[in-house]
Structure formats: structure tokens, C-alpha cells
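Q: I'm writing up a methods section and want to include an example of the input and output format. Could you take the sequence below and give the corresponding predicted C-alpha cells, formatted cleanly so I can copy it straight into the document?
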Amino acid sequence: MPTQHHATITPRQEEISTLPGRPLPLGAKVMASSVNFSLFCREAEGVTLVLFRPKAKTERICILLNPSGHRTGDIWHVEVQGLPLDYTYAYQITRQDTNSNSEQSQLLLDPYAKKIVGGECWGRVVSGQWRCGLIKDDFDWQGDQPLHRPLSETIIYELHVRGFTCHASSKVKHPGTFRGLIAKIPYLQELGVTAVELLPIADFDENENKTLDPVSGKPLKNFWGYSPFAYFAPKASYAAIKGQQGNEFKEMVRELHRAGIEVILDVVFNHTAEGNGLGPTISFRALGNSVYYMLDAETGEYLNYSGCGNTVNGNHPVVREFILDCLRYWVMEMHVDGFRFDLASIMSRGYKGEVLSQPPLVEQIAEDPILARSKIIAEAWDAGGLYQVGRFSPHPRWAEWNGRFRDDCRSFMAGHSGMTAKFATRIAGSSDLYQHNQRNPTNSINFLTSHDGFTLWDLVSYNHKHNEANGEYGRDGDNNNLSWNSGKEGVSRSKKILAIRARRVRSMAVVLLLSQGTPMLLAGDEFCRSQNGNNNAY
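A: Here is the clean output for your methods example:
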């Protein structure tokens, strides 16, 4: 008979028992009368599953996993019977190199968690620790499936879920949420876009940024969300109803599909929220530091090709499987239509940061049978200087953000000399980049502006970045904006200058939409949204 652990929870007198469980699938799998928990951790001597009663800050059940009965290879597992789904969970581990009791008692998130509990209110600092929630997949998709629209028929609209409707001018019932975006579907249809590309919606801590607002003195927020810690879990504060982020995300996808609009997720598999050695330990660092991250072979310090403190070791077999499991989940269970990979060139690097001629992860994503009809778009550069636009992958499925299109068209429109031939090449489909290896102009995602950099109005209103509000004294953001202020820096009341700016905005919009390739617009450019010259409004 397998060893069983019994725990009695008072005052409700609910009895739970455990069985050894199964190593796959990883994460928490809700079944008819039990939940199977599975966690990868190679270096642990012991693993404890910690269960929390709802609304209880300290009351917990600790289930110590027996290495001889609850471990298969590097995976620890247990099946908990009779567990109510309103419980939350986390893990604790012990290792040979654990230095203190505080490290052993630290709560760790499950990297495969589908729901995070603790960050439901945007901007409110989480009291204590995030925990993982349990979900039962009972959503009614009403026959919905990904749309599989070809790139040749695609117009992408890049937006931030919260930023798109959080202002009162949006006039939606649930501003800053997935449901707020649903309310704006008629507007998206009126624009004529066929896909929305959502800035990261995987859960992150907007309060991680400790930089102070130079005016108010209060800590600034990480607005964009490019610091995920739960790759399978939709951002909790993007739900209108507390705890319903999973179902509301699905509802948003279903309704966008009904309107003929695809959903592309901006995914961040190049770094995590744990940062460098001074950053927080949330999960990956404790569960497999040398597996999940690129480390210096001599010092053990984090290699930083992301510019964010650490670099995900994407071509390690365990990490490759984690990334593919995540992508498959968003396609199979959440019905998304594709992905844009942030700083994707990091996926071309090996364990030591070396550039691989045939990176396994890049090839696996392109050849994965579940992802076979999903859009895959690379931001083909990284913060370590690896620039691969036009040569990220020979596989014809990979599209790329065409940074050459952005830079050459901006330079031409700003009046830089010697740009006519380059401009002609870009609007004609960038044949120098995308007419080889069965690739064609649709592999080029043409854009002039994105979340990163000036808006279209600021591109015609500023020569230089004005990032004072970031509290970083101008150290952040790109200095090479390839912009022209049309005669005056910043805000102007001159009718002549405003007319020039308006004409240039219209001209650049026409260039973008009529060029050969797949166009991408930045949300708000259609009505000349300004960030007051801030080119890094993260």
C-alpha cells in the first residue's frame, strides 16, 4: 500500500489524504476528487507542499514529500484527495547548500501555476506572499477556435490591456481589464485591425519598481509588465471580478474571435522577475538556478543579455520543455492565435551565452505540431548586441519585427540624406532581408512605432527623449530616435508647425499601411497620442 498522509482541518473538519501521485503533467492538475501536484526540482533534498485555507493568513497544512515515494527522477509529486478548490498552495524546499532556517521556510511559487492569488488590486502592495491558486477548466467556449488568419491578411494593433481603457475617457464599465477591452471591440472593428498584440499579460509585480516619481516622491509602477514570474497565469488585476482572471481572459479571446480579431501575446522568455543576485527569489532561482539561468562559469554570477539582471537559459532541455509547455497551454487552453517573443535573439544563445548556428528552441517552436498554425514573431535582437533582423531563423514560419523598416523609414521621413534607396527597399518588402529560404515580405512585421520608443506624434514633435518622469535622470531609453520635431521641440501652438506635424503623421501612416509586408500599429497613434517625449514609458 502506498504511504498516505492524513491532515484534519478545523473547524470545518475536512479530511484530506495523499497518494504518491504522478510526475506528469507538471503543475497542479485538478481531477474529479483530487489534485495532483508535480514540481521539478533537481537539487532539493526535501520538498514540502504548503496548503492554505481561504482567507487564512497563517493557517496551513504542510505535506512533506517522501523522496522514496514522491519523487521520480528530478520531479516531486503528490496527489491530494478531498482538497477544496478554494485552497491556495506554495512550496518549500531544503537543499544541502541551504544556509538558514529562513531559506528553508521561504514560500516558492509553482512555475506551472495557472492562477496567482495576491495581486488582484492594481498598485496595492501584496501583503505577505503570493500564492498559487487551483483552477477547474469549465469555461464554455461556445465552439470557439483560433482564427488562423494568414499574415498576408493581417493588420496588427499593439496595445496594453490596462492602458487601453483605464482612463475615464474610455467610458467602459470595467476600465483597465480584459472586460474593458471587450467593450472596445466595436472601436477595433472600425479601425479595421485584424489582430491585437497584447503587451505581457502573464502575472507580474507592478510594485517591483522602487524608483521614485520626481514630482510626487512615490514609487513608480512597472506598467508594461516585462518582468513575469508566472508564465501560465493571466494578470490577476486585469480581471473585473476578483479571482476570475482566467475565465475573463478566455471571454475576451472568445469575443475578439467572434469579431474576426486574433489575439497575439507578447511573451518574455528572455528574463524573469528575479533579476540579478540582489533580486527576489520567487521560484526559478531556488528550484534550479543553474538550469533556468545562464551563469558565469567561474563566478556563478548571472549573465545579462536581457538588460534586466538575468538571462533565461532557453536552450537547456528542461527550460525548452517549460517554454513549449507554456506556449501549448496558451494555444490549447486559452485559444490564443500567436506570440511575439521579446528579445528573441536570446533564444539563439547557448548555456554560456554563445550564439548557436542552429538553436534547438527556435527550431522546436517552429516545428511543434501544436503550434503549427500559430503566428510566431521574433523581436530579433537582444541587449547583448546580437542583432538578427532578416536572419533570425531560416524557417519560413518565423516572422520578425523589422527594425530596419522602422529605422530606414524614420530616417527618410526625418529628412536624413542618402536614404531614398533604402526607403524604397523597405516599402517594397525588404527583399534584401526576406527573399530567401522560402521567406517573403509577409515575414516582415513592418512598424514605425511600438510600445518601446516614441509614439507617432512624438516622433514628429521631439528631436530628443524627455524621460524626466521615469526618475532615472535620463539614463534610460534610446538616444537614437531618428526623429524630427518639425521645427520646435515639444508642445507648440504654431498652426504652421501643427499642420506640418499632422501631415507627416498622415504620410507615415500611409507609408506603413501601403508597404509590402505585415503592418503593425501602436495603439493611440491613430489619434496622435503623446507621451510628452518619453521614449521609455515602461
